[in-house]
Amino acid sequence: MAPSELRYDGQTVVVTGAGGGLGREYAIFFGSRGANVVVNDLGSSFKGEGAGSAAADKVVNEIRSAGGKAVANYDSVENGEAIIKTAIDNFGRVDVLINNAGILRDVSFKNMKQADWDLIYKVHVKGAYKCARAAWPYFRKQKYGRLISTASAAGLFGSFGQTNYSAAKLALVGFTETLAKEGLKYNILCNVIAPIAASRMTETVMPPDVLEKLKPEWIVPLVAVLTHKSSTETGSIYEAGGGHMAKLRWERSKGALFKPDDSFTPGAIAAKWKDVVDFSNPDHPDGPADALGLLEAAANLSPSPK
Ligand code: NAD
């Protein structure tokens, strides 16, 4: 189904950090497609300083002026219960949660202060956890839920000056992959996106001509598809930015097998190193159990010649 046809009538969508940037685009989209929207935003700076109600109020007004239904919530995502309570108190349900709120504290690892590490962890990891934790019982009870968490290329690949942010963003990948497994039988689908878009977060690090090609509204179609009731996709990682969209997955090299006995020495590994790093015939594992067959195959190798 084309995104232009997707609707969310009667559903309640909670978007964290929806007072600006990507979150604002999601909120306006859902508000225009029949959903009740909770527009959460703490109203802080992109470094996490200060707070205020103006950002969330402005988006709520935009949605209402266009005929949509929305309420504001000004809590930090660290207070996930209060955000989900706003959804329940106003609309009686929660169907979709988009963990989008975020800040940056970029600094080289050498110069990073404890506060830079702690605040990034609190907003991105603890915040996503607290919101998901509060929505989860409703999702389970109604046997329906759609959860998006927001990772980043910085977390997937590393990025200079962003150890705190990278660690937090990749944590959300593991968080989402596990929730996808736990939620599956309740029709709770959980995915993670790594967007790239013009916002106050990126305007200081990217030139205007590049930003012009990365409109935040171009991330909306992916989020729309993944959160729609017709979706079956779960536990996946997507990259999106400009007009590009792709799915990412883990890849395991062909690898080498070693009899786990006293022949399994550093020298034995060195001799087979080219197999360890050979990606010409890879696997794409999606669970810890996928490695068990390999462990068994190694154990069953014939004894190494002495
Ligand atoms: P943004 O700064 O425009 O929006 C983030 C919003 O989150 C802001 O309105 C801010 O007030 C709000 N917020 C911050 N801390 C909060 C808290 N504790 N509780 C509630 N709200 C809070 O940035 P954006 O670019 O739209 O980023 C949205 C998400 O996408 C973030 O998680 C970010 O890390 C991620 N991301 C963005 C890009 C990009 O290229 N823009 C790239 C990778 C990841």
From TrEMBL:
Localization annotation: Peroxisome
UniProt superkingdom: Eukaryota
Subunit structure: Monomer.
Role according to the record: Second trifunctional enzyme acting on the beta-oxidation pathway for fatty acids, possessing hydratase-dehydrogenase-epimerase activities. Converts trans-2-enoyl-CoA via D-3-hydroxyacyl-CoA to 3-ketoacyl-CoA.
Family as reported in the entry's similarity comment: Belongs to the short-chain dehydrogenases/reductases (SDR) family.
Name the record gives this protein: Peroxisomal hydratase-dehydrogenase-epimerase
Source species of the chain: Bimuria novae-zelandiae CBS 107.79
Lineage: Eukaryota, Fungi, Dikarya, Ascomycota, Pezizomycotina
Full-protein residues shown: 1 to 306 of 900
